[in-house]
Design a protein that fits this description.
With about 130 residues, this protein is of the alpha/beta class. The chain is globular.
């Protein structure tokens, strides 16, 4: 396992991804932060069989948000990815499920405290709202 920056055009969503659907996901909630900061949490990918191509086991929404961001900013060319071994589809699905199901969203008080800290650190409320799609 290693981290690499992979060209966005060398990535595709794996059929083993738990969110593998035919239509693009709604990324309106994460798009502002991807536009402003880029993808800061790497996608999890595995080689797809074609030389230099990878399939996304986890990170479909970050990938689609990056595709949207690339329409506005041509400098979005690569994405940070954790590259795992080729493995089987069951392993890829398990990775996808772990990455998607084991997250715990912060409670409202922790969110409020964090937003308050950002204001105290000099961030404008409008900038915070834009970054977090609020």
């Amino acid at each position: 396992m290693h981290i690499d920056y992979i060209p966005i055009d060398r990535l595709a969503v794996s059929k083993a991804n738990m969110r593998a659907g035919k239509k693009p996901p709604d990324v309106s909630d994460i798009l502002p932060s991807v536009i402003k900061r880029g993808v800061i949490i790497p996608l999890i990918v595995r080689p797809s069989g074609s030389d230099g191509d990878f399939e996304i086991c986890a990170g479909k929404r970050r990938y689609f948000a990056s595709l949207e961001a690339a329409k506005e900013d041509e400098s979005v060319r690569t994405l940070p990815c954790i590259v795992v071994g080729e493995g089987d589809d069951a392993e890829a699905l398990e990775i996808s499920m772990i990455e998607n199901m084991l997250r715990q969203d912060p409670d409202p008080v922790t969110q409020w405290e964090s937003f308050t800290r950002l204001v105290k650190e000099g961030r404008a409320v409008d900038d915070i709202a834009a970054t977090f799609a609020l």
